[in-house]
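Worked problem 6 (solution included).
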Amino acid sequence: MAIVTRKPRNASLRTQQFIVDEALSKKAPEKSLLAPLHKKGGRNAYGRITCRHKGGGAKRTYRIVDFKRTVRDVPGVVVAFEYDPNRNLPIALIHYKNGAKAYNLKPEGLKVGDIVLASEKAEAQVGSSMPVKNIPVGFFIHNVEVVPGRGGKFARSAGCSVQLVGKDGDRVILRMPSGEMRTVCSDSWATIGVLSNADYRNMILGKAGRTRHLGIRPTVRGMAMNPIDHPHGGGEGRSKSGSHPVTPWGKSCKGVRTRTRKSTAILRRRK
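Solution. The predicted structure is:
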C-alpha cells in the first residue's frame, strides 16, 4: 500500500491524500456474499436520532464477512483481495475445499494463493484461526471473540491487533490496542496476524465532499449556537462557557471518564 498525494490543481487537492493498494485483484464482489444495506441516518427503531451527524452518502451493498469462521477443519485458498466500502481495510475472498466461499479480514502478510485454516489443530500462521488457548504467548491476533461462539468483536479495523501476553487457567490475558489489559475465555476464537492498511490513519480527505460521500454530515460548534440549543451557546461575541466542555445535554466530555460499570475482566484500564 502507498499513500498518494494529489497534484495541487485547486485548494481541495492541495492537501488531499488517498491510499492505493496494489494487492486488490478483484473489482466485482462475490454475488453470493452480498446483502442489501439500508441507511438509517442515525435513527433508531422509533425514528429518533440517537447518533448525530449521520446521513446521506454513497450507496453500498454489504459484504458478509465471516467473523465466526464457520467453515472449520477445511483448508481454504485465498483467491483475491477486494475493496469493502463498509470498512477501512480490504477483505480476502476464500474458496474452501468443500466448495464454500467466505470473506475474511485481510491481515498483513497474507498473499493470494495462501492456505488458511480454522481449526483447533491449525498451525500458528498468519490467517489461521483457532482458540486463544492454542495460540502461543506473545503472538498478535485480531478478530477476537468476547463470548465463545458469537464471532469476533475485538481488533477488526485497519492496523489493529491484540497481543496475547499470558494464560491463567481458563482465561487468557490480552493487551488491547488502547493499552488496556483484559481477560477473555480461553475457548474464544481468534485469528493470527496484524490487520493490514495501517496507513489508513494518515489519509487526508481534503474536502467536504469526500466526507459527505462517507455518510458524515456537518458538525456545528456549540459556541456558535444559542443558549437554548447548547450549554456553550450565547454570550456577547465569542465567549467561553466558563465550565469544562460538555455535550448538548450537559454531560462532561473531552477527557472525563464516563465508564461507570466496572468489569472484572479488565485488569488494567486504558491509559
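Discussion: The first helix runs from residue 11 to 14.
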